[in-house]
Amino acid sequence: MTNLPEAKLAREAEIALATLAMITDYDCWKTDEAEVTAEAVIAHLHANVALAKAIIRRAIPAIPTETEWPEHRSLDAAIMTPRSLWPEETAARLQPLLGRFL
User: Fold this and answer.
1) What is the mean pLDDT of residues 18-45?
2) Number of domains forming the structure of the chain
3) 70 touches 10 (CB < 8 A)
4) Is the pTM of this model over 0.90?
5) Which of 33, 48, 92, 99 could link 22 by a cystine bridge, Cβ 3.0 to 4.6 Å?
6) Residues with catalytic annotation?
């Protein structure tokens, strides 16, 4: 229901991340509404798809092609173990993430 794991993993991989979340129903907390039906959820899904496409069409051209965002350097202060103590096998396996530190 959230993207917390994805956000944490993106941060560890120094990937900038944005989320576009859309609601299909409120049945988990809004008790004064009619019960949710499959038809209502599907109708909201279709409306959300159209809205998401419109948002993405406008957002993509606004993304810079050259970026230097803090997310791209989040490991600078996160790695505390001295390089000399990294197991070589682990360093090799994590090379895509740690390449600039090797």
Assistant:
1) 84
2) 1
3) no
4) no
5) 48
6) 25, 27
SS3 (DSSP) at 44: helix
| Exposure string over 68-86, b if 16+ CB within 10 A, otherwise e | eeeeeebeeeeeeeeeeeb
End-to-end CA separation in angstroms for the chain: 37
Q: Which residue has the tokens 């202060």?
A: 77
36-80 pLDDT, tens per residue? Answer: 889 988 999 999 999 999 999 999 999 988 888 899 999 998 899
Evaluate whether residue 42 is within a structural domain: yes
- Alpha-carbon distances of 70 from 6, 11, 46, rounded to whole Å: 17, 10, 35
Distance between CA atoms of 76 and 80, rounded to whole angstroms?
9
